[in-house]
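TOKENISE THE FOLD
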Amino acid sequence: MNLKDKVNQKLWDAIKANFVNEKYKESILDAIQLVGDIIREKSGLDSDGNILIGSALGGSNPKIKLNRLNTDTEKNIQKGTEAILRGIYSSIRNPRSHTKIEDSEDEAIEIILLINFVLRRLDDSKGTYSIDLFINQVKDEDFVRTKKYVDIIISKVPSSKRLETSLKLLEEINELPPHNLNLVWNAIFKKLKKEDQNSLLSLISEKLRSESDIGVAKSLVSISEDYWDRIDEDSRLRIENKFLKTISKAEIYANGKYNTQAAIITWVIEILYKKDFSLKQELINELLKNLTSEDEDRVRFSMDLFGDYLTQEAKEEKLLPAIKKGLKNGSRTIKDYLDNPLHPLNSKLKKDLSEFTPTLEVEDLPF
């Protein structure tokens, strides 16, 4: 008998090396190992042996359903298959794992064909985990943004599917609500093996080397912000520079609303600036440059960050000239911000404030 033609390809791939070398006991154990792997993958469980079988296929609501379990016949198939699998572990695997047994080719074929029969049923079964369903949970408008909820849905991701699920999250990154994505990503990333984490960070580094969409770049940085020092340096520098370029277009309007660029760069400053932002000085220089702009919305953007960042980081010899030039340009935003006797810079800018002449606005014009 040509066994290869009688069993499915996945099973043959698992047993081939030992079977063709006449290591029949080992090929039987390979086949049973495959069964266990498939059950763990479908059920999301990490146990083994009869504990795995009972937890995955047993009970009134099994994690792996071989059918709809509506009729007595369907329920009997479920229970019978569970019993067969328990028998495979108890009477076939365990003795070969703990005692010296040498199987003949005929015995190996008989056992492997039985396992092939069970695998066919498992292949047609429905497990509790689906990557697509998981992604839909992340997209769900009723997603619960709590640690408890996230822990529950992450617990249902089989350990063998964590990396694949993470890759799917990356693939769908532009379609997922950012806050939901961050919560889920951080939870699943911490459960990955170090080598899988490194693979994902390498992939993110690669994406950041060429990503042109500023929104996608923001999402990529957001999910990797806690591991920013593990992102390749050239990728970090490139994307930080890309963010800096948005400052010249960042505006906060008189009604307090941010434009897209202002919202993005404010987030960048609040997150990466506090970490290891490589281009920190360049960032400060761009913010100072905004103070001298004749566009009041751009000035307002830098002034909004003025108290928290510029006064902490910008050296006075750079900060004061920018403010003075802004006042000379007639920026009401800067004047209003500094027009307070208690402001620490007020005493150094008294002359500039006293000589301030505001830029005429449309409503001020005499026609």
